[in-house]
## 1
Amino acid sequence: MSVSVGGPARVRRATRCVTAQPPPRAPPAELLAVTGYIRGIPRPRTAAGCFLEAWGSATRRQPAVAWSLSGPGYRRDAMFQQQLPVEAQIESLFIDSCLPSNCVDAVTNTMGYHPKYLESYRTTQNFILRGDGPLPLDYRHYIAIMAAARHQCSYLIDMQKQEFLLQGGNQMWLRGLNHIPQKLHDLYEINKILAHRPWLLNKSHIEKLTKGQDSWSLAEVVHALVLLVHFHALASFVFGSGINDEQKYYECDDAREVLHLAPPPRSTKAQQPVQKLENKGYKEEIPIALSPTEPEVGVDMLMERMKTLSERSEEVSAEEYRKRFEHVESQSAELPLGQRTPPIKPDISHFIEDPKFTYVDFAHRGVQVPTFRVQDCSWEDHGFSLLNGLYNDVGILLDDKFKTTASLTYNTMGGRRDVDTTVFRRAIWNYCQCMYGIRHDDYDYGEVNQLVERSLKAFIKTACCFPERLTKRDCDKVMKEFLHSEKIHVNLMILEARMQAELMYALRALMHYTT
Ligand SMILES: CC(C)C[C@H](N)C(=O)O
C-alpha cells in the first residue's frame, strides 16, 4: 500500500493566482430566465450566477482569484496527516476547479482533503462530462440529472441543471421526463435498475436500447452507463459527507479566514452572501436511527483488532469463506435503518418515475440471482478492457481512480500515527460491495464483522443504498474518534466501491450482449 507524501509540515501562504481565461460566450436567454437573474442583484451565488459574473469579469478583463481551502479543521487535519507540503497541489487543483467568481463547489472543496484523489476524480469527471465522447453535451448533463434524481440529490441536480443550460440544453427538458426525447427517456429503465438493484440488469436491457428507430449506438450506451454510475455514487458521497445540507459554494473569503489570512473588508463580505441550500425541514422531521445501541468500538480497540488480523495465518476453506460472506450479507439485511425516505420535493419530482423502486437487500432478492463472484468477472481482467475498447480511454481513468482510492492512506487513524489501516479500508470496500451481492472469493468476510461495527455498517448501508435518508448529523454521529478528513476518506471509499459495483453489473450485461 502506498504511503502519502511525507516531509516536514510547512504552511504555504495561499497566493492569488491569476488565470487567463477566454471570455465565455454571452449567457443564454433561458439561463437568465431560469435563474431569475436581474441585472443589479449583487453577485448571485449559483453556478449560473457565477457564470454571469465570469462573463462580466472576463469581458472586463478582470483576473479571477483562484484558490480556496476551507472547512473547519482543514489545517489541523491536513497537518496531522502530514499533507501540508501538498498544499500547493490542492491549490492548483482548486485553481482548475474554481468557478470564475472565486468559488469552488462544495464537492471539490470537501474532496480537497484528499488531493491525490481529487485530481483523479476531476480528470475523470471532466472527461465524461466535457471530453471527447459519443454523447452530446446536453445529453450528458441531463443523464446526470436523471441519475442524481434517483436519490433526490438536489445539490447535484441543481448543479447539473445549470451546466445543462450553459451547454445550450433545451429549457423545456427541465420541466421533466415527459418533455425529453424518447431516446433519452428510454434510458430511464437502466437508470432505475442500476441505481437500486444493479444485479437485475441483463443484455435484454442493452438490446432494447440499441434496436429500433432512433436507437442508441453501443458507444453511446457505454458513455451513458458511465455517467449514470458516476452520479449515483456521487450522490452517496454528497449525502454521506453532509454536503446536501450545506452551502453549495465556498468563497475564497471564507477560505481566507480558515487560513488566518487578512480578513476581507467588511463591506465586501456583506455584499457577498453565500447562498445556503434551502433546507425546508424535510430531514429534521424524520427520526434518525443510526445511533448505535451498543457503544462504538474505540480506535485503540480497532487498532488492536487490525494488528491481530494482519498477523494471523489461519487456514480457511473455500466453503468457510463462502459461508462467512453469506453470514455478513444476511446480517446486513437485518440492519434496522430506521428512517423513512424523505418525501420527494416538488421541484425534483418531475425527474423521477417509479419512486417506489428502491434497493432491496440482496439476501432477500427473491428470484434466484447468483452472487457476483469477482473472480468470474473482475474489473481488472474483464471490465477495464471492455470499457476502454468501447469508450475511448475511460477505462484507464476509472482504473486510476479506483486504484488511487483503494491505496489512499496516510498511515494514521483518529490521531494515531504509523498505523497500517489496510485491513480496515479493505473491510469498508468489500462491505459496500457485499450489499450488491458482490463477493471477492479470496476475502475473509469475517474481518468485516471484526472491524466494522454495527453503527458504521448502518451508515455505510444507508450511504450506499438510501443516501437520501442521511443528514449531516448522521455523519457526525458515527466514527466519532476519526478526524473529519478520515470521515471524508470513508465516504470516498463508499463512493468508489459502490460505483465499481454498479459498473461491474453494467459491464457484465454489455459483455453478454456483445458475445
Ligand atoms: C479512513 C481512515 C481511518 C484512513 C486512515 N486515516 C489512513 O490513513 O489510512
## 2
Amino acid sequence: MKSVAINGYGTIGKRVADAVAAQDDMKIIGVSKTRPNYEARTAVEEKGYDLYIGIPEKEQLFKDAGIEIAGTVENMIQEADVVVDCTPGSIGPQNLEMYKKAGIKAIYQGGEDHELTGLSFNAISNYDDSYGADYTRVVSCNTTGLTRTLYTIDKIADIKKARAVMVRRGSDPSEVKKGPINSIVPNPPTVPSHHGPDVKTVMNRIDVTTMALLVPTTLMHQHNIMVEINNNVETEDIVEALEKRSRVLVIDASEGLGSTAELMEYAKELGRNRNDLYEIPVWRESINVVENELFYMQAVHQESDVIPENIDAIRAILEIESDKEKSIAKTNKSMGIL
Ligand SMILES: NC(=O)C1=CN([C@@H]2O[C@H](COP(=O)(O)OP(=O)(O)OC[C@H]3O[C@@H](n4cnc5c(N)ncnc54)[C@H](OP(=O)(O)O)[C@@H]3O)[C@@H](O)[C@H]2O)C=CC1
Ligand SMILES: O=C(OP(=O)(O)O)[C@H](O)COP(=O)(O)O
C-alpha cells in the first residue's frame, strides 16, 4: 500500500488527511504542524496521526505543551511515496527543494503558481496529464468549481468563451483576524483574477475570463457565469448534463436552498464529515440558455471541494489507477459524494 505524508495540517491538510485515511489503497505516514495548538493535539490524541514539525527549532514548544512528535518534516517525507503539500501559498518553492533532495513526489495546492510544478490537476479534465508525474498542483477551490461545470457544459455545448464574476468569501471560518468587515473588496482589483487563466492550466481549450470580489462571509464562494456556446442546446440539455456529472449538484432554491447559508445547513443534514460539501451546487433556477448564451450561478464550499481532487491526484501521480473514472468513482464512494 502506498504511503502519503501531509505537510501542513490546516484547513485543507486536515481534510486531505481524513480523506486519505478513508481509502483502502493508500495510508497516512504523518501530518505536520509548526504550532502546538489544538489542531496539533487533536491530530495526535483524537485522530491518531503521527505528528511531525515543520520548523525543527520549535520542538521545545511541542514538548512544553505535552504534544508527542514523531520527528521533523524531513523525517516524515523519507517514509512516504508522496507528500501532499498543504502549507500556505508561497511556501511551496522552498519545500520543493527539500522534496527534490529527498527524491519524493509532491502534490501542491492552488495557492502556489502553476509554474512551480509546470503541471496542474483536475480529476475530470486532465487526470492523465499527471499520471506518473513527479510533481503536480491541484488547482484552487474556485478554479476547481469552474472547471467541473465548464468541462461538463463544453462536452455538449462547445463553449466559445466563458466569463464569470466570482464572489469570494472573505476568510475561512476560524481566521478571526481577517476581513473584510462591512465592505465589498474587488480582489484582485485588476482583471482578470487568477481563476479564469488558471482554468486553462487544466482545460486549455476554453477562453475563460474572471473578475472577483471579497465579501464578509466565511462559508462558500459564489460564481455568476456567462458562457457563449456554439452548439444549439436547450436549457434542459444543460440541466441534464450537470445532473449526470458527479461532484456537481443541481439544487433548487425553491426547496429552501436559495443561499450559501442554507447549502451549508444541507451539508449538515447529509451528515458529512466536518459538515463539508464536496460537490459544486448549481442553482437549477439560474440555468438559462438565451440564443447562443448560457447563464448559471453556482457555489463552492472552499474548504472541501478540492479534497476529492487531492485523492485522485495521489492515485494519478503514484500510478495506483490509470482510469480516471475508476479513481473518481472510488473516491466518491469512500467519501459519500453524491
Ligand atoms: N482555505 C481554502 O479555502 C483553500 C485553500 N487552498 C490552498 O491550500 C493551501 C493551504 O491553505 P490552507 O489549508 O487554507 O492554509 P492554513 O493556513 O489553514 O494551513 C496551513 C498549514 O501549513 C502549516 N504551515 C505553516 N507554515 C509552515 C511552514 N513554514 N512549513 C510547514 N508547514 C507550515 C500550518 O501549520 P501551523 O498552523 O502549525 O503554523 C498549517 O497547518 C494554500 O495553497 C491555499 O491557497 C485551496 C483551496 C481552498
Ligand atoms: O483557493 C482559494 O481561493 P481562490 O480559488 O480564490 O484562490 C481558497 O479559498 C483560498 O483563498 P484565499 O487565498 O483567499 O485564502
## 3
Amino acid sequence: MKADPAITVTGLVKRYDSRAVVDEVSLTVEQGEIFAIVGPNGAGKSTTIETIAGLRTPDAGTVRVFGHDPIGDRTAVRGLLGVQLQESSFQDKLTAREIVDTYAGLYQDPLDSGELLDRLGLGPSAGTRYAKLSGGQQQRVSIAVALVGRPRVVILDELTTGLDPQSRRETWGLVEDLRDDDVTVLLVTHFMEEAERLADHVALIDRGRVVASDTPAGLIGDAGLAQQLRFTTAAALDEDWILRLPEVSAVARDRHEFVVTGDERMLFSVVSLLGAHDIVPDRLQVDQPTLDDAFVAITGRLLDTDHTTLEAAR
Ligand SMILES: Nc1ncnc2c1ncn2[C@@H]1O[C@H](COP(=O)(O)OP(=O)(O)OP(=O)(O)O)[C@@H](O)[C@H]1O
C-alpha cells in the first residue's frame, strides 16, 4: 500500500492587497522524494512554502503536513518539519555550534549538534562566529538548523543561491544524503540544473499557478523538444539519405560536419544508417533537451496563448 503523502496542498490561495500571488495551487509531495518548485521571480514559490511551514495563513485552500494543519496543529507540525528559509540569518557573534545548540533546545529529542556539524563538514568551524564563516558554511549552518529536530520533511528555499559551483555540488550531495535517510525534501530553486539533477518531481509555478508538474524526464518529454545529433565524417555521405529516415526532421551540413534534428529514436536509426554504409563518424555527440529548454518551451507556449509577459523565463 502506498504511504500517505508527506505534504498535500489543495486549492491554496494567498492574496496581498486583493491580488492573488498564490492562486489555487495544488501539490502532493510523496514521502521520501525530493520535490522541487521552480519558477520565475515573484511567481509565488516562497509564499507557497511559507504557508506550508505555517508562517502564513492561507486565504483559501488547505495545507497538510503528514495530515496536520500547520496553523491549527502547530506543535505537531513543528516536530515533523524542518525549514531553511531564503537568506536565513543568525546572530553574527554566535558560533556555528551555539546557533545549532540554540535551535536544538526547541526540540525534545534533537540530534547531537557536534555530530550534525561534523556530518555537514562544519566540525572544524564549529567554534567560528557566524559572521566569519564563508557563504557555503553559513548555508550549511542553516541546513543544520533545519535538521537538528530530526524532521521527517525539510523545506529548503533557494539553498544554493550565492554559492560557488563546488559548494553547490557539495550541497547537492547533502540533499541526496537526506533522501537516502528517508527524509522528504521540498526545495525551491530557480536553477533548472539543480532541479533536473536532484528532483524526483518538479512543479513549475508561474504567476501563482502550477503550470506543469511531473518528473524532470516527463516535463522534458512533454515539451516535445527535438534532439540533436552532431558528427563529422569525411566519407561520402548524402544528407538526403539521413533526411529520408522517418525519425529525422532536419539535417544541416557544413563540409564534414552534420547536425541532425529529430525525435528520441533518431540516434539509433542514424547510427544504423551510417553502419550500413560502413561509415564510422568522428566526434559523435548527442544534445539532449534540458529542463531549462522545457521550461522555456512550456512558458513560451503560455506566452503564445495569453500574450502576457514573462520576463524571468526568457
Ligand atoms: N508580505 C507581502 N506583502 C505584499 N506582497 C508580497 C508579500 N510577500 C510577497 N509578496 C509579493 O507576492 C509575490 C510572490 O512573492 P514570492 O516571494 O512568493 O515569490 P517567489 O516566487 O518566491 O519569488 P523569488 O524567486 O523572487 O523569491 C511577489 O509579487 C511579491 O512581491
## 4
Amino acid sequence: MNDGVELAPAVQSILDSADDRPGGAERVSVDARSLDEAFAAADADGRVPVIAEVKPTSPTTEGERTEDPVALAEAMVRGGAAALSVLTEPTHFGGSVENLERVRAAVDVPVLRKDFLLRTEHLDVAESDVALLIARFLETDEADSLEAMHAAALERGFQPLVEVHTRAELERAVSVDAEYIGVNNRDLAELVVDLGTFEDLAPHAPDHVTLVAESGIGNPEDVRRMRDAGADALLVGSAIMADGDVEANTRELVSA
Ligand SMILES: O=C(O)c1ccccc1NCC(=O)[C@H](O)[C@H](O)COP(=O)(O)O
C-alpha cells in the first residue's frame, strides 16, 4: 500500500532491485504442504508454532552466516520449528532461489518464500508452500494489486501469507479474504521494531484468520508476549540466526 511515507533507503533499494528481477518463464503449480497442519501438530505436542527463517544477512544485521542453508534448515527443524522461511532476495539478504529449492527438498515442513514479490510473474520463479505478499508494496505503479497477487498465488497452489503493518493494510488483507495474515512489527519506512504493533492490530483481525507475529521476537519473553496478544504462530529470523547453535536457538523459542 502506498501511503506516501518515504521508505528507508535500504528498503527503497530492495524494491528497486526487486522491480528489475525477471519473472518465471512458465506458470508454476504447487502441491503445498499444509501450514494449518504444521501449526496444529506443533500445538498438539506443546511446541509454540514457529516459522524459523534462513536469513544469511539483512540491512539491519552485522555480518553474514555463511553455513550451508540446508544444514541451518535441518537444525531448525530438529529444534522444533513448525515451518521454515527462506530468503530468496539475493542482494540485500544473501538469499537465493537455489537455497529455497535445496531446503524444500531436504525437509518435510512447509517452506515460505521470503522475498519482495511485485508482479504475478514473480510468483513463477520458484515453488514454495507459502508465498509472502507484502501489502504495503502491492499498491504502487510498479506492482500488481494485492487482490491480483493473492488470487494468482491461490491459483498456483501457494498458501499466501499477507504481511501488514497498519490498520489500513490489515483491512485491505481482510478485504481480499486472506486466510493467513502476518503482522510485521518492523516498520519498513524507518526499520524500527516495536512489538506493540502486533498487540495493536491483532484485536482487529477476524477470528478465522491465522495470525502470524513477524519480526523483532528475540527471546522467550517476547514469544509469550506475542502469544498472549493472539499470535497463532511467530516468524523469527535474527534471534535464531544469531551467534551460536541454531538448533538450540530455535528450541529455546519453541519451548517458551
Ligand atoms: O530484517 C531486516 O533487516 C529487513 C530490512 C528491510 C526490509 C525487511 C527486513 N526484514 C524482513 C522480515 O520480515 C524479517 O526477515 C522477518 O520478519 C524476521 O524478522 P527478525 O526475526 O526480526 O529477523
